[in-house]
Amino acid sequence: MTVPTAPAAEKGADPGTDPGAEPPDSGSRHRLTAVTGLAALSLDAMASVAYGPEAIVLVLAAAGGHGLGFTLPVTLAIAGLLAVLVASYRQVIAAFPDGGGSYAVARARLGRRTSLVAAASLVLDYVLNVAVAVTAGVAALTSAFPDLHDHRLALCLGVLALVSAVNMRGIADSARAFIVPTAVFVGAILVLILVGLFRDGPVSTAASAGHASALADDATTVGALLLLKAFASGCSALTGVEAIANAVPSFRAPAARRAMRAEAALGALLGVMLIGLAVLISRFGLQPVEGVTVLAQLADASLGHNWAFYLVQFATMILLALSANTSFGGLPVLLKLLARDNYLPHVFGLRADRQVHRHGVLWLAVVSAALLLFSGGDTNTLVPLFAIGVFVGFTIAQTGMVLHWCRERGPRWAAKAALNGLGALLTGVSAIVVTVTKFHEGAWLIVVALPLLVLLFEAVHRAYAGIGERLGIGRIPEPPHRERSLVLVPVSSLTRLTSEALTAAVSLGDDVRAVTVCHGDTEDLAAGEALERDWALWDPGVPLVRIPSERRALGRPITGYVQKLRATEPGTRITVLIPEVEPDHLWQRLLQNQRGAVVAHAVRRDTDAAVCRLRFRIGSP
Prior knowledge:
Number of domains: 2
Oligomer: single chain
CATH topology of the largest domain: Amino acid/polyamine transporter I
CATH class of the largest domain: Mainly Alpha
CATH architecture of the largest domain: Up-down Bundle
Helix content: 55-70%
Distance between the termini: 37 Å
Shape: elongated
Structural class: alpha/beta
Order of helices and strands: HHHHHHHHHHHHHHHHHHHHEHEHEHEHE
């Protein structure tokens, strides 16, 4: 069993006398720069420009053409919140350079339980982001090629397998692989905006021709509740802003400075794209139509229905599918921190040579695949569950930063606390509005899953605490002392394996006994007598003990014998050494009878004896 202490500190080489020198084996080449960090950890946020403005337009369309006139003001409000969030998370990065984002902030300033709520919200959001991103990307592909619609689930699983495989090679490799798609998408959107600003009107409406309008005909007023709902829906464009702060340890040194640069670049690019698209929506007077995205209409109106239009669509499709990579960059680091604090199994804290937390990557891939199977690859099934968790995390992080500035003070602490307080208020209201408006569409699942995940963290923590108490972690143990050692070796016949096992046993223990289980039928009695005769002729210097058993069982008679020895010889350390053949080929294990596994399981379950499984390689003939 794993000892319930924090995983070992990550290895670092001695930098020597030159403080600016990079340690030769520090794994720096497998970490992120500001540019590669932007590609690896911002795809979720970047891709949100494909559905954030549309979410605003669809809500405002309920108020008719008059409601669409508020698209730009609502977007400007979201951009203002984006600026607050970026400034806040830059402060989080500087104050908590070990990563973890809202979990780290809450753990330090808001208490253990609140930090677990933040962690649970982030875990749920990251998992849902993978499923939503993959299904949205495949939906864009099947929209262009309708013949693939019936194969969307297989396509979703294929894209998920591709992104998972790339991330198993390391976050730096995944970043390098996704730099080009990210650059093409951002470049295409910026060109679309720039060209559109010089247009007097739409150059083409071919994309929306023949599609029914989603605009309400009889609405003329815009209420505060509608604007608030539009603001909350459009805030889906802010998902992913926190990912860089969660994965600071993945950056090259100085990690915090590079992460802050990446966060600022993300905020600037995302803000420019959101505001630019909103300006074009108002400039061209676009209306939402069924079956065509707002971004597609903007590309058609600005660039024309030509190769540039299809380039924007293809780049959007690719980036939507690959935006799942944000979760693969941020969640494994968060799971590592939870494992360090004993809220998850310590296996999530292990890291491979390429700075990969492979168990976190594999877990994320498996759970995301289960969500894809549950939804059948349908985006609309998953979207109502999305973005609630991230707003909870936003609110907790900024509330924690308010307390951080109030305690730490420092230059301009009051202004910083006010900024974070405003952000906490806005994101808190957005979280409530999104949850209420989407509750009956499936958001209730998140409301249920969030506390269940917190309870799971608590259960793991209690288990580790109990194990730690029994092991006496933090206390000086008694000095070691020698006790009599008895080694039991289960045997069924005389072979070279028996000789090897007894040789190992007499090297380990003061007393060695071979044990064999004999059942009551005639065949087994005859086999037992034959083994005793052969044993006497062989005379290995180790006694053979026959354990009678009325039932055809193997593990229970041996554990009964161990328990009897424990009662009669309380000061003796008992070890059960189980000899097993180790075949040359994996498929040959199917030829084995698995008796060793049965005995080992029974001894571990019913006694406190040590179990040693001796693997003997027989080699090729």
